[in-house]
Write a structure and sequence with these properties.
CATH architecture: 2-Layer Sandwich
Structural class: alpha+beta
CATH topology: Beta-Lactamase
Number of strands: 7
Shape: globular
Largest sheet: 5 strands, antiparallel
Number of helices: 6
Helix content: 40-55%
Strand content: 15-25%
Number of domains: 1
Length: about 180
Protein backbone atom coordinates (compact mmCIF):
# COMPACT_ATOMS: atom_id res chain seq x y z
CA UNK A 1 0.00 0.00 0.00
CA UNK A 2 1.07 3.55 -0.60
CA UNK A 3 1.86 6.19 1.99
CA UNK A 4 -0.94 8.37 3.33
CA UNK A 5 -1.58 11.23 0.99
CA UNK A 6 -3.94 14.13 0.80
CA UNK A 7 -7.12 12.31 -0.11
CA UNK A 8 -9.86 14.61 -1.22
CA UNK A 9 -13.09 14.90 0.65
CA UNK A 10 -15.81 15.32 -1.88
CA UNK A 11 -18.14 13.57 -4.23
CA UNK A 12 -16.41 10.18 -3.94
CA UNK A 13 -16.89 10.03 -0.20
CA UNK A 14 -13.14 10.34 0.43
CA UNK A 15 -11.89 11.58 3.77
CA UNK A 16 -8.53 13.22 4.43
CA UNK A 17 -5.80 10.68 5.19
CA UNK A 18 -7.82 7.66 4.05
CA UNK A 19 -6.27 5.89 1.10
CA UNK A 20 -9.25 3.61 0.41
CA UNK A 21 -12.48 5.56 0.43
CA UNK A 22 -14.84 2.64 -0.17
CA UNK A 23 -15.17 -0.96 -1.33
CA UNK A 24 -18.30 -2.00 -3.21
CA UNK A 25 -19.31 -5.38 -4.60
CA UNK A 26 -22.32 -5.19 -6.94
CA UNK A 27 -23.87 -7.75 -9.24
CA UNK A 28 -24.25 -7.37 -12.99
CA UNK A 29 -27.52 -5.43 -12.65
CA UNK A 30 -26.17 -3.00 -10.04
CA UNK A 31 -27.55 -4.53 -6.83
CA UNK A 32 -25.05 -4.02 -4.00
CA UNK A 33 -23.95 -7.26 -2.33
CA UNK A 34 -21.25 -5.95 0.02
CA UNK A 35 -20.23 -2.39 0.85
CA UNK A 36 -17.72 -0.72 3.14
CA UNK A 37 -17.36 3.05 3.39
CA UNK A 38 -14.36 4.50 5.20
CA UNK A 39 -15.29 7.99 6.24
CA UNK A 40 -18.89 8.90 6.81
CA UNK A 41 -20.86 9.57 3.64
CA UNK A 42 -24.60 9.88 4.23
CA UNK A 43 -26.88 7.04 3.14
CA UNK A 44 -28.08 9.00 0.07
CA UNK A 45 -24.42 9.69 -0.81
CA UNK A 46 -23.60 5.99 -0.40
CA UNK A 47 -26.43 5.12 -2.78
CA UNK A 48 -25.19 7.71 -5.29
CA UNK A 49 -21.65 6.30 -5.07
CA UNK A 50 -22.81 2.70 -5.57
CA UNK A 51 -24.98 3.68 -8.54
CA UNK A 52 -22.25 5.85 -10.11
CA UNK A 53 -19.61 3.16 -9.64
CA UNK A 54 -21.81 0.53 -11.26
CA UNK A 55 -22.80 2.76 -14.19
CA UNK A 56 -19.18 3.74 -14.75
CA UNK A 57 -17.62 0.28 -14.70
CA UNK A 58 -20.48 -1.73 -16.22
CA UNK A 59 -20.49 0.54 -19.27
CA UNK A 60 -16.81 -0.03 -20.03
CA UNK A 61 -15.86 -2.39 -22.85
CA UNK A 62 -14.01 -5.62 -22.09
CA UNK A 63 -10.24 -5.41 -22.30
CA UNK A 64 -9.86 -1.77 -21.23
CA UNK A 65 -7.86 -0.59 -18.24
CA UNK A 66 -9.52 -1.41 -14.90
CA UNK A 67 -8.79 2.03 -13.41
CA UNK A 68 -11.28 4.88 -13.76
CA UNK A 69 -10.65 8.49 -12.87
CA UNK A 70 -13.64 10.86 -12.86
CA UNK A 71 -13.17 13.88 -10.62
CA UNK A 72 -16.78 15.01 -10.96
CA UNK A 73 -18.18 11.62 -9.95
CA UNK A 74 -15.64 10.27 -7.44
CA UNK A 75 -13.83 13.36 -6.17
CA UNK A 76 -10.56 15.13 -6.80
CA UNK A 77 -7.59 12.78 -6.85
CA UNK A 78 -9.77 9.68 -6.44
CA UNK A 79 -9.76 6.66 -8.76
CA UNK A 80 -11.89 3.54 -8.94
CA UNK A 81 -10.04 0.27 -9.43
CA UNK A 82 -12.20 -2.70 -10.30
CA UNK A 83 -12.26 -6.33 -11.34
CA UNK A 84 -15.11 -8.44 -12.68
CA UNK A 85 -15.55 -12.03 -11.51
CA UNK A 86 -18.51 -13.96 -12.97
CA UNK A 87 -21.59 -11.83 -12.16
CA UNK A 88 -19.90 -9.59 -9.59
CA UNK A 89 -18.06 -6.28 -9.91
CA UNK A 90 -15.51 -5.60 -7.15
CA UNK A 91 -14.76 -1.86 -7.03
CA UNK A 92 -12.40 0.04 -4.73
CA UNK A 93 -12.09 3.84 -4.65
CA UNK A 94 -8.57 5.00 -3.77
CA UNK A 95 -6.69 8.25 -3.50
CA UNK A 96 -3.68 9.17 -5.61
CA UNK A 97 -1.23 7.83 -2.99
CA UNK A 98 -2.48 4.26 -3.47
CA UNK A 99 -1.08 1.92 -6.11
CA UNK A 100 -3.68 0.84 -8.66
CA UNK A 101 -1.84 -2.41 -9.32
CA UNK A 102 -1.64 -3.03 -5.58
CA UNK A 103 -5.42 -2.66 -5.37
CA UNK A 104 -5.94 -5.00 -8.34
CA UNK A 105 -3.87 -7.54 -6.39
CA UNK A 106 -5.85 -6.81 -3.21
CA UNK A 107 -9.11 -7.54 -5.05
CA UNK A 108 -7.60 -10.78 -6.39
CA UNK A 109 -6.53 -11.87 -2.89
CA UNK A 110 -9.97 -10.94 -1.50
CA UNK A 111 -11.73 -13.10 -4.11
CA UNK A 112 -9.26 -15.97 -3.65
CA UNK A 113 -9.83 -15.85 0.12
CA UNK A 114 -13.61 -15.81 -0.36
CA UNK A 115 -13.17 -18.84 -2.65
CA UNK A 116 -11.41 -20.69 0.16
CA UNK A 117 -13.82 -19.59 2.89
CA UNK A 118 -16.91 -20.49 0.85
CA UNK A 119 -15.38 -23.37 -1.12
CA UNK A 120 -15.78 -21.64 -4.51
CA UNK A 121 -17.62 -18.41 -3.75
CA UNK A 122 -20.65 -17.31 -5.75
CA UNK A 123 -23.04 -14.39 -5.50
CA UNK A 124 -25.46 -16.37 -3.32
CA UNK A 125 -22.72 -16.98 -0.75
CA UNK A 126 -22.26 -13.24 -0.38
CA UNK A 127 -26.02 -12.61 -0.28
CA UNK A 128 -26.73 -15.14 2.46
CA UNK A 129 -23.42 -14.82 4.32
CA UNK A 130 -22.61 -11.14 3.85
CA UNK A 131 -21.29 -10.90 7.42
CA UNK A 132 -18.68 -13.59 6.68
CA UNK A 133 -17.64 -11.86 3.45
CA UNK A 134 -17.48 -8.59 5.38
CA UNK A 135 -15.30 -10.18 8.05
CA UNK A 136 -12.85 -11.34 5.37
CA UNK A 137 -12.76 -7.81 3.93
CA UNK A 138 -12.33 -6.29 7.40
CA UNK A 139 -9.30 -8.55 7.97
CA UNK A 140 -7.75 -7.02 4.84
CA UNK A 141 -8.81 -3.37 5.05
CA UNK A 142 -9.31 -1.45 8.29
CA UNK A 143 -10.28 2.21 8.39
CA UNK A 144 -9.38 2.68 4.74
CA UNK A 145 -5.89 1.22 5.14
CA UNK A 146 -4.70 -2.10 3.75
CA UNK A 147 -3.64 -4.15 6.79
CA UNK A 148 -3.20 -7.65 5.35
CA UNK A 149 -2.53 -8.96 1.85
CA UNK A 150 -1.79 -12.61 2.54
CA UNK A 151 -4.73 -14.86 1.75
CA UNK A 152 -3.37 -17.49 4.14
CA UNK A 153 -3.11 -15.02 7.02
CA UNK A 154 -6.59 -13.64 6.35
CA UNK A 155 -8.02 -17.15 6.19
CA UNK A 156 -6.26 -18.11 9.45
CA UNK A 157 -7.59 -14.97 11.19
CA UNK A 158 -11.07 -15.68 9.83
CA UNK A 159 -10.86 -19.26 11.15
CA UNK A 160 -9.82 -17.96 14.59
CA UNK A 161 -12.80 -15.58 14.62
CA UNK A 162 -15.19 -18.38 13.68
CA UNK A 163 -13.77 -20.64 16.44
CA UNK A 164 -14.25 -17.86 19.02
CA UNK A 165 -17.82 -17.32 17.85
CA UNK A 166 -18.56 -21.05 18.19
CA UNK A 167 -16.94 -21.16 21.64
CA UNK A 168 -18.96 -18.13 22.76
CA UNK A 169 -22.16 -19.68 21.41
CA UNK A 170 -21.54 -23.03 23.14
CA UNK A 171 -20.60 -21.22 26.37
CA UNK A 172 -23.83 -19.21 26.23
CA UNK A 173 -25.89 -22.36 25.66
CA UNK A 174 -24.32 -24.17 28.63
CA UNK A 175 -25.12 -21.19 30.86
CA UNK A 176 -28.77 -21.31 29.81
CA UNK A 177 -29.27 -25.01 30.68
Amino acid sequence: AGAAGSAAAGNGGGAAGIMISWVVVVNNVGVPRLTRFYGQPSVPEQRRIIDAAFRTIAGRPEGVCSFVEDEETFGKGMRVVYRVFATLYFAVCVDEAESELGIVDLIQVFVETLDRVFDSVCELDIIFNWEKAGTVLDEMVCGGMVVETSSGAVQANYGDIQRHIKQDASGSQSLQT
